[in-house]
Design brief:
This protein is an all-alpha fold. Helices cover 71% and strands 3% of the residues. The protein has helices at 7-35, 38-68, 74-115; strands at 123-124, 130-131. α1 (7-35) packs parallel to α3 (74-115).
Length: 144
């Protein structure tokens, strides 16, 4: 007769499933960016945010259980290691997408500066270097 699953293990397995969904959505995110499918991109971002909110709620429950309950030993620690590995992959993907957004923003800023030079006077820093003004019309959400 098998031992019933603990609440801690059930939460870990649910976190694992949520992270699988997030990783799949991140692939869709990358494909939407590469394919310039902007409506799809908005939908994917919303789905990722919802799943990460769900993960955060589950993680709070897991933390409460880990403080109060005994874990199932090796089986729970292997699931926990898998969850942590998926979290690292999610963070790496988020960093790569953030870097892509920063590179793109800097490129667009350079194009705007060259195409539409500002008529303002030059502003210098304390060290004497020219300080470039950021274009006011570029808005980038760096949460991803």
């Amino acid at each position: 007769m098998s031992k019933p699953k603990s609440a801690y293990r059930a939460v870990l397995e649910e976190e694992n499933a949520v992270l699988d969904d997030v990783l799949a959505k991140q692939k869709e995110f990358r494909a939407a960016v590469n394919g310039r499918q902007w409506p799809d991109l908005v939908n994917v971002i919303s789905a990722i945010n919802l799943r990460m909110d769900q993960f955060n709620r589950l993680d709070e429950r897991r933390a409460a259980f880990s403080a109060s309950e005994e874990m199932d030993g090796a089986e729970c620690s292997s699931i926990l290691a898998e969850v942590r590995g998926k979290l690292v992959r999610c963070m790496a993907e988020n960093k790569a997408l953030g870097d892509y957004i920063n590179i793109t923003r800097n490129f667009v800023k350079g194009v705007i500066d060259n195409a539409l030079p500002q008529s303002r006077s030059m502003v210098y820093s304390r060290s004497g270097a020219i300080v470039r003004q950021q274009p006011q019309s570029v808005v980038v959400n760096t949460l991803f």
